[in-house]
Automatic annotation (TrEMBL):
It holds the Pfam family APH. Residues 31-256 form the Aminoglycoside phosphotransferase domain. This is Aminoglycoside phosphotransferase family protein. Gene3D superfamilies: 3.90.1200.10. It comes from the Bacteria. InterPro entries: Aminoglycoside_PTrfase (IPR002575), Kinase-like_dom_sf (IPR011009). Coiled coil: none annotated.
Length: 315
């Protein structure tokens, strides 16, 4: 993981402007965990106990983060107030810094390995989110195929230059996997607001309710937002779930999502195959200086997702 900037790294002028949004002096901070951006990701709390979430970065820290954080600000400004998304309170530039201030949503990231009840709560919240954001309410967002299509053509690059550690199951089916991945990219199309980077560390789940079930879910970090299929985020989330013992029945849950939205199950398989192609290809790319640890993350995701995809193909 990259080393994140912290509240202490921000200049006094940024502190002052954030305190202006908060309406009081900041007396405590708490950093968030996870993710691959060097941006600050901190809850800052004032003297009265009121808190906001602050994300700040400079181009010198990571130029891509500036672009992505601007997109996130556009999304948060346009989503309906009822959507399970933190409200944008302010976005401003102060010298080289781009700063987003949002409400501090209640809850914590889900603990891994996933709890079945929390996973089901997130999938149910995704259905609600897509009800609120179809058609896509954010003008100018690119289609997900335009934003991620090249990444999802990983099996094409693997076929042209196979890695030395290519799994034999993949090698024996590479032509069919390439064709399925192209079908999966096409199936991502639609006019729903898509988060585009949905995994555990981009979710907050409030404490359990009185009945023992997971509480309210909030979807955070909208830097990769786009327009696409109503099932795209659920497919991506389930593609990230590691379930070596099979207790979460990832494929069963994916089939239930596809059935609810009237999407053929083989289409879900093709979408998963495209995501797998990305990780098979990307797992061989060396880490960059600004995002260390990414290669190990991608390798782990590749291996876990391969088991899920194999199950769907073999059945």
């Amino acid at each position: 993981m990259p080393t994140r900037l912290t509240w202490g790294d921000l200049p006094d002028t940024v502190h002052a402007r954030v305190e202006g949004v908060l309406g009081e002096r900041v007396v405590a901070t708490r950093g968030a965990t996870g993710g691959f951006s060097p941006s600050t990701a901190e809850i800052v709390r004032g003297v009265s106990g009121r808190a906001v979430f602050v994300k700040a970065v400079r181009a010198v820290d990571n130029p891509d983060s500036i672009v992505l954080n601007r997109r996130e600000a556009d999304v948060l400004a346009a989503v309906p107030g009822a959507a399970p998304v933190p409200a944008l309170l302010a976005v401003f530039e102060e010298g080289p810094w781009l700063v987003l201030v949002t409400e501090a949503a209640a809850g914590a990231v889900p603990e891994l390995p996933w709890d079945a009840g929390q996973l089901d709560a997130v999938l149910a919240a995704l259905d609600e989110l897509q009800e609120d954001t179809t058609p896509c309410p954010v003008p100018g967002l690119p289609p997900i195929g335009e934003l991620l299509g090249e990444d999802l053509l990983g099996f094409e690059r693997v076929a042209a230059d196979p890695p030395a550690d290519l799994d034999p199951w993949i090698a024996a089916r590479l032509g069919a996997l390439r064709a399925a991945a192209r079908e999966g990219i096409a199936a991502h199309g639609g006019d729903t607001l898509v988060h585009g980077d949905l995994r555990a560390d981009n979710l907050l789940i409030a404490g359990d309710g009185a009945d023992g079930r997971a509480g309210a879910v909030r979807f955070v970090d909208w830097a990769w937002a786009s327009r696409g299929s109503r099932v795209a985020d659920a497919v991506q989330l389930l593609a990230s779930v590691e379930d070596p013992q099979g207790v979460l029945d990832v494929n069963g849950r994916l089939d239930a999502v596809l059935d609810r939205h009237g999407v053929p199950r083989e289409v879900g398989t093709a979408m998963l195959t495209a995501i797998l192609g990305f990780f098979v290809d990307a797992a061989r790319i060396p880490d960059s200086a600004t995002v260390p640890g990414l290669r190990a993350h991608r390798t782990r995701r590749r291996d876990a997702l391969l088991a899920t995809v194999r199950e769907r193909w073999d059945r």
